[in-house]
Amino acid sequence: QSALTQPASVSGSPGQSITISCTGTSSDVGSYNLVSWYQQHPGKAPKLMIYEVSKRPSGVSNRFSGSKSGNTASLTISGLQAEDEADYYCCSYAGSRGVFGGGTKLTVL
Amino acid sequence: EVQLVESGGVVVQPGGSLRLSCAASGFTFDDYTMHWVRQAPGKGLEWVSLISWDGGSTYYADSVKGRFTISRDNSKNSLYLQMNSLRTEDTALYYCAKDRSRMEYSYELDYWGQGTLVTVSS
Known about the structure:
The complex is a heterodimer of chains A (109) and B (122).
Chain A (H helix, E strand, L loop, with lengths): L8 E4 L5 E6 L11 E6 L6 E4 L13 E6 L2 E6 L8 E8 L4 E3 L3 E5 L1
Parallel strand pairs in A: 1-9
Antiparallel strand pairs in A: 2-6, 3-4, 3-7, 5-6, 7-8, 7-9
Chain B lengths: L2 E5 L3 E2 L5 E8 L6 E8 L5 E7 L6 E3 L7 E6 L4 E6 L8 E11 L6 E4 L3 E5 L2
Parallel strand pairs in B: 2-11
Antiparallel strand pairs in B: 1-3, 3-8, 4-5, 4-9, 5-6, 7-8, 9-10, 9-11
């Protein structure tokens, strides 16, 4: 069961936009619109930021958006803020299992 | 307010057994699929197992299949993970998490507990 592929790290300056990619296969990301994204600050539990590829839970800033093309999903954060510095994980439905990405550390310069 | 509170994490020797618990409140527990997700120290998230809202379906990651058993008691609003034949690589913070979809499973987890630490070491 291979993890989804994410870049290990990304960075951006306050106010800029960044995009984190999440590449899977035709057995997971490519076949289902059940891709979610999680934000995790150090020592804290993960927080759901995006579900069903592009939907935001109540209370999540509209600076966070999601999309998908083929086997790759993406999370975009616009207007970067210092509080966005965290680890980000994607996750996909894959039938009888769930699969997470390896995680991406976002640094706000 | 949704709350998930895990317990049961301890230090255990390789080959040993352990049972984790998760007490849920603030939502209709028996309407939702529940999951266990783990995170090894300094590592990423790994999905471990799910159990459907009625306990009728269970799924496991290959890494724990045949060793771990997920269960639930809807009368007690509680989720469990029985862990047998523990290995050093099972050392992790174990999170209990609620599936977002009612009476389905989407692997989209909208509420998480704070985790309970399992350390497998001699």
